[in-house]
Design goal:
By secondary structure, this protein is of the alpha/beta class. The protein has helices at residues 17-23, 37-48, 66-76, 113-124, 131-141, 177-183, and strands at residues 4-9, 28-31, 53-57, 60-62, 81-83, 95-98, 106-109, 145-148, 154-156.
Length: 190
């Protein structure tokens, strides 16, 4: 299955070197020139809907062998949304869930689904929420489940967000795959 990679950005941040090392030039930038995170996110979901897509944000570090790992997981769950970075400090095993969609640093969307979510987000008119929370409400309304995957295949750089106005105190995960590999411990032992 062919997968397309997209990166959300405002072009104010230099991408981490891991993106160049792991993806080369195999990605498309989705640029929010107007600093309208919800509006741009909805439009970006419509754009990526024509493909089996990985949607990344510009403030992340990719794990080593990122494409190999992420495409291996997607081959197991090709028809369901997969969130590869969520609830950074919570320990849990990979599972399927309805609702509770938060963080959006690295998400897989099967072809066609993201436009459906975008159209539902437009109906909700909840612009005071973060775009991930709004997306969670839309997915809940549409009865769309997703997988919360562990260990995290990306790490949050933890700079102030340029795509969203909210800032969470700790956006880095101790469950980042590279950390576990460097310590030579399994996710279960972490």
């Amino acid at each position: 299955m062919k997968i397309r990679y997209f990166i959300r950005t405002t072009l104010e941040r230099k991408l981490d070197k891991s993106i160049y090392e792991e993806l080369g030039e195999d990605y498309t930038l989705l640029i929010d020139y107007e600093h309208k995170p919800i509006d741009s996110f909805i439009e970006q979901l419509k754009i990526i809907s024509d493909y089996n897509s990985i949607l990344l944000e510009d403030d992340i570090i990719l794990c080593k062998d990122f494409k190999k790992h992420i495409e291996s997981v997607i081959s197991i769950y090709p028809d369901i949304i997969i969130n590869f970075f969520t609830s950074p400090n919570m320990y849990f095993k990979t599972h399927i869930i309805k609702g509770s969609f938060n963080f959006n640093q690295c998400t897989y969307y099967p072809k066609g689904i993201s436009k459906t979510i975008a159209l539902e987000m437009e109906k909700l008119n909840m612009n005071s929420l973060g775009y991930d929370v709004l997306e969670s409400h839309a997915m809940f309304n549409l009865n769309i489940y997703h997988i919360q995957y562990r260990p995290c295949l990306v790490q949050h750089i933890d700079y102030k967000s340029l795509l969203s106005y909210k800032h969470i105190s700790s956006r880095r995960s101790i469950y980042f795959k590279d950390y576990l590999d460097e310590l030579n411990i399994s996710y279960e032992d972490a």
